[in-house]
Design a protein that fits this description.
CATH architecture of chain B: 3-Layer(aba) Sandwich
Strand content of chain B: 15-25%
Number of strands of chain B: 7
Radius of gyration of chain B: 13 Å
Structural class of chain B: alpha/beta
Number of domains of chain A: 4
Distance between the termini of chain A: 83 Å
CATH architecture of the largest domain in chain A: 2-Layer Sandwich
Helix content of chain B: 40-55%
Largest interface: A-B, 25 and 27 residues
Largest sheet of chain A: 6 strands, antiparallel
Structural class of chain A: alpha/beta
CATH superfamily of chain B: Response regulator
Strand order of the largest sheet of chain A: 8-7-6-11-10-9
CATH class of the largest domain in chain A: Alpha Beta
Largest sheet of chain B: 5 strands, parallel
Number of helices of chain B: 5
CATH superfamily of the largest domain in chain A: Histidine kinase-like ATPase, C-terminal domain
Helix content of chain A: 40-55%
Number of helices of chain A: 15
Shape of chain B: globular
CATH topology of chain B: Rossmann fold
Oligomer: heterodimer
Radius of gyration of chain A: 47 Å
Number of domains of chain B: 1
Number of strands of chain A: 18
CATH class of chain B: Alpha Beta
Chain lengths: 505, 129
Amino acid sequence: MSEEPVRILVVDDELGVRAGCRKILSAEGYEVTIAEDGQAGWEAFQARRGFAVLLVDLMMPRMTGLELMKLVREVDPDVLPIIITAHATIDTAVEGTKQGAYSYIPKPFTPDELLLAIKNGLERRGLTLEARRLREERERRLLEVAAERSKSNTIIKCITDGILVINTEKLIVLRNAAAAHILPDAELVPFPLEALGCAEVRSLIEEVLDSASGPTILSREVGLGEATYMVNVSQVLEPGGAEPASGAEPASGAEPASGGEAAGAVAVFRDITALKKLETAKSMFVSMVAHEVKNPLAAAEGWLNLILSGLAHQDPQEERRMIQRSLIRIRTLRTLVTELLNLTAIETGNFTLRRSPVEVAQVAADAVEANREKSQEKKIQLSFTAGAREKALADREALLMVFSNLIDNAIKYTPEGGHVGVHVSHDGLYVKVTVRDDGIGMDPGDKDKAFDEFYRAKNDFTANVPGTGLGLSLVKRLTELHQGRVSVASSPGAGSEFSVHLPVC
Amino acid sequence: MAKLILLVDDDLDFLEQNRGVLSSRGFRVTCACDPQEALAAIERERPDLVVSDLMMKALDSGFSLARLIKQDPRWAGTPVILVTAVASQRGFDFNPRSREDLIAMNADAFFDKPVAPEALIAKVEELLA
């Protein structure tokens, strides 16, 4: 703006005045446009806006100076009108200033009078414009601040982490919805810190507020009811500490801390309950796996140690027995690793089923045959009957694993001379495969946990049965991958019956 | 008469192995599959030393058994050796690091499975000396 010359419109029906003004003003660096009457002045104004000063005669043909002033000021109120008139009476001056003229210059005038009037007028105009610019900026800022404030309030309200803001007076001045849910200790904010029920949280906040040595952030896991929270308390140092306190008018009236001093503290509560549960489940699983892997490994190692130490007295028969015993444990270990890999693959969604219409009875028959030898070794009568030839959309190998596992289990937990029967039937929309034995059965507690990973019923009988504790959970997962379900009916001494339902395709 | 040792484990392989090791050194050996059975065996046979697995039916059953033995004035003097396949649970390592740790777990010795035959014999003989 400062670079561009100040533009002045001179409207007078006297040629001498027009020419004189142009000469004087141009010499001072003003850009001057002239018009011979009100109408011509209005046209010149409209042709190119942006005049700073309107020098106007009052009495002109076609349109008077006052009429022109009025029109101009309606369009551009920033134009500074200065009246030049020969009729320098009080009346016209009053009328002129009523219409918004800044001043008037009586004709005739000297160049200095003209320049002074214009200089004063421009100064005044500059001040007005600057004041308005400042006012507008302030209003815009205020609007922004209000919008920002309501925005941050909304954000704070919506954050699922609990948030408390505490001022140096130990007054809780802000509590978002999540925090109110976590710590429903007082109805209304603000309330004193002592009203906070949880002593652990209270002392954590106090520790931060009372710490004199600069900014502090403290984090602690805190159990509140059923849930566990990671509580982060940070000291707030900004002197503009009023901002967090904005939610509570009475408290924000407290004198703001001076620069660098503590303004209060903010406590954030993050619910880590699910994380803790997951962590516990994970470490329990790892411990179980470690135990289940190391136990057979140690047993096998123990037998080999024994052979090497010569305690078998080099009896080939005895040594052979020891090697066989270690082999059993090593095979269990290998099965365990395979089952673990399968389970992990299923859990991570990397176990791809190759499904096609499969005759379920055929797969069950194959599983029975695969276990035939094992049953004969134990003198267990293994029977198979198929009363349904329905097909299911299934992965043949996975189904074989399911049925084999169940039959293998049945043989394991049935004493010599017992019976294991596999039966395929039609059950509504499902084809049902049952594996029934007259073995040791399960008590209700064991039955409920039968499908849990690594769960193995422990009793005198099962102590002699090698197993990984993963077979049944694999059966369950594989069946569920086929949109099927597996269930068990059993009671101690009366055998067990496992049923697999698969949707018919 | 030869000293009597009670072996407690729910894993038959370990029972057999340790029985083999100890009986080869002339000890008499009796076995129990769980802490309940072990307590009955103690009442009945008054063993001179107990070697117990740590994790049987309940996860800390070896610790419980050791505590019951040491707290009963009748058997408080009976040495207890604890053996385990996994000396940590959920990241919490309970391998004893000092004499105090052993006392706290009511044990006179602590071994990782499998125990080398010579190590087991040496410890048993030391504790019975």
